[in-house]
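To close the chapter, one final illustration. This time we ask the reader to focus less on the individual chains and more on the assembly as a whole: which components sit near each other, and how the overall shape emerges from the parts.
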Amino acid sequence: MSQTLAHSSAAEAGLQPLYGISVEFDDPEALVEAARKTRDAGYKRVEGYSPFPIEALSEALGQHQVEVPWLMFGAGIAGGVGGFGLLAVTSAWLYPVNIGGRALIPWAQFIPITFECTVLLAALTGVAAMFVLNGLPEPYHPIFNAPNFDGVSSDRFFLCVEARDKQFDAEATRKFLEGLGGLQVSEVRESKK
Amino acid sequence: MNVQELQVTTTELMGEKLNKLSSGALVATVIGAVLCALTFFTEQKSFYHSYLFAWVFWAGISCGSMALLLLHHTVGGGWGFVIRRFIEAGASLIPLAALLSAPVIAGLFLGNLYAWYQPHPGHELSGFKADWFATPFFLARWLAYFGIWWGFSTAAIRLGRRFNTGADKSTLDQVNRLGGFGILIYVITVTFASVDWVMSLTPHWTSSIFGLLFVASQALSTMALMLFLVWQLAGDSPLVKGLGRYFRDLGNFTLAMVMLWAYMSFSQYLITYSGNTVEELTWYQFRSTGSWRWVAVSLIAFHFAAPFLLLLTNSGMKRSPSRLGALAVLILLMRFIDLWWLVKPTFSEQVTLNWSDLGAPLLIGGIWLFSWARAMRDQPIVPFHDPRLQAHLHEVVSHA
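The assembled structure is written out below.
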C-alpha cells in the first residue's frame, strides 16, 4: 500500500475507499495524550479504542453523550405519571371503595407502584436508546481492517482520525499522527462489499 | 502529585484553621449556654426537650465517626483516607458524648422527658415493656452502649495508627476483622439506643425500622459534617489536591445515605399508614397535623428531594470539595430539623421554637467541636504506610 496515493487515485488503483488513519499505542496514558493533541489540532471525527473504559479518554475526545439521560428522564416521568394515574383513575373514579375510611387517593400507598413504573420505563428506555444510538448490533466496522487491531481486546490502544473529518488530508494527517509517538500508523480502508 | 506532600501532620497542614475553629467553638458554646439559660429559667421542661434532640445529634456524630472508621477498616477504599483523621478524632469523642448525656439523665429523673418514668394513672406499662423500662436497667443499658462503643472506637483508632509508622500484613488482617465485627455490633447497639433515647418518648409506639433509620441518619450527619470540615480546614491543601479524585465516592456515599434515609422514613410511614392502628398512627398524627405538617413537608423537600436531585443530576458537584461542603450545610441543618421533629411534637401540639432549640445545638456542638479540634492535632494527615493507601497513590490515573 503506497503512502502517497490520494483518495481518488486509490479507487483507480483498485483500492477500497479510505476510512481513516489509525495510530497504535501500548499504553493508555499515551492514547489519552494523543487524543488530546489530536483534538487540539482541530480534528473532530476522532475515535479511541481501548480494552477497558478510560474516563479521561471520553473527556479528551470531547464526547458528551446527552441524549440517553434525557430520554430516560422523560420516560421516567411518563412512567411515574402513568403509574400514579392508573391507580388514581381506577381507585378514585372507576371503582371507588371506602377502605377503613381512608382517602380514595392514599398517595403514600401509591408511591411504591409509582416508583416501580418510573424505574421500569426509564430503564427499558435507557437500554433501548443505548442500542439504537450506539448503532448496535454492528458485526462489521472498517476499523477491524487496521493491522494488529485484534490487540485492542487485550493490550493495544488505537486512535483513528476518520476520513470524513473536514480537516482530513491523507498526507498531512498521516504526518501529524506519526508525530504522536505511537507504535505504527496505518491507513484503514473499507472492506469490499 | 508529589507523594511526599502527604507526609505532613495535621497541625502543619491546618494548625491555624484548627485554632480558629477552637475559638469559634468557644464563642458558640457561650452563646448556646446563654440561649439555653433563657429557656431553662423560664420554661425548664422545654430546655430538656431541646437538649435531648441536640445531644442525640452530636452523640450520633461520634457514633457515626466510629461506624465510618470501622467501615473503612473493613472495606478500604481511597475515600476513607481523605476523612480518616477527621473521623478518628470524631470517634475519640465517644466518652465526651457519654459525659454530655448527664442533663438527659437529669431530665429523666425530673420527669421531663420519658413518659414511662412517671406514667399518668392508667398509662402504666405492663409485661415486658415494664421490665425493659425499669429505670436501673435503662441506665445500665445506657452505660453499656457507651462502654461498647468506647472499646471499639479505641481499638479502631489504635490499630489504624499503627500504619503511621509502618505495618505488616497481620495489622491489615486485624483492622479488617475488627471493622467487620464492629459494624455488626454497632448496628445492633444503635438500634437499642435509638429505642431508649427517642422511641421511648412515646412508649406505646413501635417501629422496627427505627434503629436502621438511626444508622443511616448518623452516617449521613457524620459524612456531611466531615465534608464541611474538610472543605473549611483543608480545602486547598495537598490532602484535597492529592486525594481529590475520591470526592466522587464521598459524594456518592452521601447520595446513598440521603436515599436510604428517605427510603426507610417512607417505609415506616407507609407501614404505619397501612396498619391503621391507634397506637401507631397517632405518632404520625402528632407530627403531620397543625403547624408540624409544614416541618414534615420541609423534610421531604430539603432532607430528601433537594440533596437527592442535586447529587443525582450534577456529577460536577460530587467532584467538587467546595460544592459538596456547601451542600453539607443544608444536610446538617435538615438533620437537626429531623431530630427536632422526632422529639419536640411529643411535648407540644404546635410548632414552638424555644431559645434552647437554637442554644442546645450550639452549646453541645461548641464543646464537641472544641474537643474535636484538640483531638485533630499532631497526627500524620494520612496513615502513610497503610498498604491500601500506597496502592492508591501508585495507581495509574487513567485506570481510575
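Chain B touches chain A at residues 266, 269-270, 273-274, 276, 396-400 (CB under 8 Å). The radius of gyration of chain B is 21 Å. With these observations in hand, you are ready for the problems at the end of the chapter.
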